[in-house]
Amino acid sequence: MKTYIRRREKNKDLVVFYGGWGSDENVFTPLCSDDIDCILFFNYSADEALVLPETKPYESITLIGWSLGIWAAEYLSPKTGLKPDLAIAVNGTPVPADDHYGIPLKTFEGTLNNISETNMEKFYLRMFGDKKNYLRNIDRIPHISVKSLSDELRWLYNRIMEQPEPGFRWDYAVTSETDRVFPGRNMNEYWEKHPETKHIILPLPHYIFHEWKSFREFITFVKGYGDKV
Length: 229
Hints:
Layout: E1 2-6, E2 13-18, E3 37-42, E4 60-66, H1 68-80, E5 86-90, H2 105-112, H3 117-128, H4 131-136, H5 146-162, E6 172-176, H6 184-192, E7 198-202, H7 215-226
Parallel strand pairs: 2-3, 2-4, 4-5, 5-6, 6-7
Antiparallel strand pairs: 1-3
């Protein structure tokens, strides 16, 4: 697993972000503004010790899990010792390999067994929704070797198959109507079973973060929108 940390001495707010499979820091560092500290986790390819900075007092800690990062947040968060004040799940569920509430198992295993440069280009196209949005975000496309992608997804698959029942408290779930990675109907069915989580549905693709300039803007949007739900 890899960790990206950006800190400023004066900052009082922290975002802890768990990325999805096949992502690297290029996908999310544009959202790390100077007025908020960021810890990004990605590339879940081994049971490695978490590398965390010395904890300083924060006025607020927001946890965001995106795609398979929702599952990763539930799996890894207890090991960090960081207790979020707010938790936001984006385009995924805590049961990511599931015929009813996640990516259908046949699709998940098909991706695992057919990772190639050509297929990854198709995956990133689906992640951004269409060619126009793909080209718009060309600088955010990850640069990861096929072997690393395969190792990561194999590790995730094995851990997901062993997972206990989800037990994390999510304050908000944001899902997309045009998601081409996680079936929207499956995500909706899962979050409808959890009325304690405010569910926001947006007309966006799987990767939605290009719509905001920073994590702070995204968090403000979710809290404002969610209060109307």
